Amino acid sequence: MTPEIEKVLIANRGEIACRIIQTVRAMGLQTVAVYSDADEHARHVAMADEAVRIGAAPVGESYLRADLILKAAKDTNTDAIHPGYGFLSENAEFAAECENAGIIFIGPTADNIRKMGLKDEAKKLMIDAGVPVVPGYLGENQDPDHLLAEAEKIGFPVLIKAVAGGGGKGMRRVDTSTEFPAALRGAKREAAGAFGNDQVLIEKFIEKPRHIEVQVFADTHGNAIHLFERDCSLQRRHQKVVEEAPAPHMTDFLRGQMGSAAVAAARAIDYRGAGTIEFIVDVANGLDGAPFYFMEMNTRLQVEHPVTEMITGEDLVEWQIRVASGEELPFDQGDLEIDGHAIEVRLYAEDPARDFLPATGRLTRFRPPLDEDFTRVETGVREGDVVSVHYDPMIAKIICWGEDRATALRHLSRALDQTEIAGLSTNLDFLRHTINHPAFAVGDVDTGFIPRHIKDLVPAPQPASDSILCLSVLGIIAAREKRAQETARASHDPWSPWAAPTNWRANLERSDTQRFIDATDEERTVTSARKDQGFILTIDGVAHHAHFHDHSEDSDLCVVIDGKRLNSAVQVTNDAVTVISGGRTHHLKRLSSRVDLEDDADGPGAIIAPMPGKILDVLVADGDEVEKDQPLLILEAMKMEHTLTAPRAGTVTGLTAKDGMQVNDGTVLAQIAD
Ligand code: ADP
Ligand code: ADP
Ligand code: MG
């Protein structure tokens, strides 16, 4: 079918690289992945037919290096490059360089990208094309007093926006003249840092807006159509977290109007391929008859494209490849219909309780819902992988379809309940609370939804229940038992009492006390005593009877507590216990003095970098005597400082950490010897 394209290089990583590889392969074409040092063992590399290392972990040395990516394409005889989203996808130079090198850029023309690259230029083009834009100031004059005067003319509140902006950066809402100068400085500083361009525009701030965008597609034969809308109003820090198609309460009339405006926008720049026209809709007086304005055009495949695929039954990446190879669009506007409803959530490594601050760490457990029937899972990571400081903290997208919105929501709610994740902070519970919120159920969405309902979406921490505390203790007992068995196996002594297939009897004292700190910062104590084949676990004077029902792989536990069988996963470290039970994750800090895992694979008392970062300070030297919990090193990662402490008392040996040193996660930085 596509004679010119036989091999496609995917100039991206993570979930989008995996998703593109899937379609390229399904079309019978060859795939080439590129990767940085941090991604050598990443899922997208494993999935591709060929993979080429391009450079070090920082994006400036790998995924943003157009020259290295083009070289990889030439070295592998690649015909076409798919840029995914982010990285080089909206880089006009790169698109041009591909074409110059005789490699097809699966995306718009360099000229298309240039025209829509700056928000002010794009808005001017749209005004000329008769597409409504948010009222505001688009001028060259960046003098602060002039900008203030323009803001006053528009009328507060206003939004200052970086013209080169993206990803919600370089944006400030301003409510009064007095706040304006400081907000302007902040927006310019952020824009200069993120985009190397500090020019801003000023817009009327719309108080109750919905973000509704239209997927457009155009070929090189003069055809341009739209594939309906997506509602992306649920945002935090101006970044989307939940997206759906169609938009709740959309009318045929408004859909027709927005669709035509979007196609007009694409035609105005002679667009090629997949693009998204983002509109802001002023819903102060409801959606029916609401005014809508062009905000920007994203000249690439969008993160949330799967919801459109699920309601149209089309594969947008396949369309992109066909258009890039010169084919005509397979459909006219009239052939397309909306079938049902689809909702996507973005699962992020972040901490909702700390204003959604990005998090990093290892996914010690990651079991997304099954990708089947009504559920689609897009991810670039597997259990055991690391979410690092170098890249976007999105772990997965979970998308569900239903014949109507309520059914899609039910499927999604169940899919999130099946998702198990541990090892780092995520927004999983936040997503659950969001999609199960009564206001979301009735489609009462606008960009103020998350701030308005934040107390419901990020509820105050709850004390750990007795059953979670029991599971924690049983998890600790099981972890000790497992160690004992491993020790026995390693000792090759068939007569050792540990070598017998045990029934949870051997390695346990008759009684034991475990102390925890729960999410409310309260100390909780559980005493356990062995009784027959089980245990009596006492919490605040209340006795619970428990025994192991079955014991399967790794950290999975099947136990009976007070006559009720519970399946759960319990992960135990010396400092903490993570319990996943009933679709919820509970984290408890441990205060117990006993060390359960002292001979870890990395050796006793190893100080290991928990994530990639930079050593800011080394507080000890080889030979120093240290106390347990004494600070040893300061590591900077994700713009945050982390203190690494001694896991036990002893002597510092083998110190490799030095001030200013870059370290990878898993690097052994020092040892604490007896
Ligand atoms: P979409 O409208 O497709 O959701 P986003 O604005 O969320 O687009 O950006 C999509 C992805 O592109 C982000 O997750 C990020 O990886 C990348 N990206 C876009 N803009 C920027 C930016 N300014 N800085 C860093 N990454 C960006
Ligand atoms: P980015 O390039 O960072 O995606 P956008 O211009 O698309 O920037 O705006 C991002 C988000 O900011 C929008 O989805 C919307 O929630 C909010 N926003 C943008 N413009 C306005 C406005 N004029 N009034 C209110 N909110 C706005
Ligand atoms: Mg945008």
How many strands appear in the DSSP assignment?
Answer: 39
Which structural class do the helices and strands define? alpha+beta
- Strand order across the biggest sheet? 14-13-10-11-12-15-22-20
Shape: globular
The main sheet comes to:
8 strands, antiparallel
User: Which distinct ligands sit in these coordinates?
Assistant: adenosine-5'-diphosphate, magnesium ion
Q: Count of helical segments?
A: 17
Assembly status: single chain
Summed over residues and divided by their number, the pLDDT gives a mean of 91
Measured distance between first and last alpha carbons: 69 Å
Low-pLDDT segments: 497-507, 598-603
Q: State the helicity in percent bands.
A: 25-40%
Report the radius of gyration as a whole number of Å. 28 Å
Strand content: 25-35%
